[in-house]
Amino acid sequence: MHEDSIQLLGDCTAGIEMAVSTIDGLLPEIHDRTLRQKLQTSLQEHQHLRDQTRSLLQQYGGQEKSPSPMAKGMAWLKTNTRMAVGGDDTTAAYLVADGCDMGVKSLSRSRNRCAGATPQAIALAQELIRCEEKLSAGLRPYL
Hints:
Elements: H1 2-26, H2 33-60, H3 69-84, H4 89-113, H5 119-139
Helix pairs in contact: 1-2, 1-4, 1-5, 2-5, 4-5
């Protein structure tokens, strides 16, 4: 049970790190006040989920998991390249929404594979999935 929980929560920490890194990197480029507020609110939600995930991982004796260097590097390259070549609020919203959609798929796969995880770990993963879905949906008017 704890092995599945540790795996699931580790995947959550990797996803949260990707989200926080992307949003942090894009916030200085955002001009629209409402879009900026949506991203700042989501950033705070991700940071709160990160704290909860770390706490639960610590209870289970697990370690945080970082995104693979390849995934992180590719995301950084994609984001910086697109923003450097005429990036605007629409481009930023597209990049974040795309990342959210990939995160939902990845976390859903992990949640399904770690069926033996504790109810607390599953609930935390589900809350992160909802956070990503909400942000993605909230960005659609900017696409």
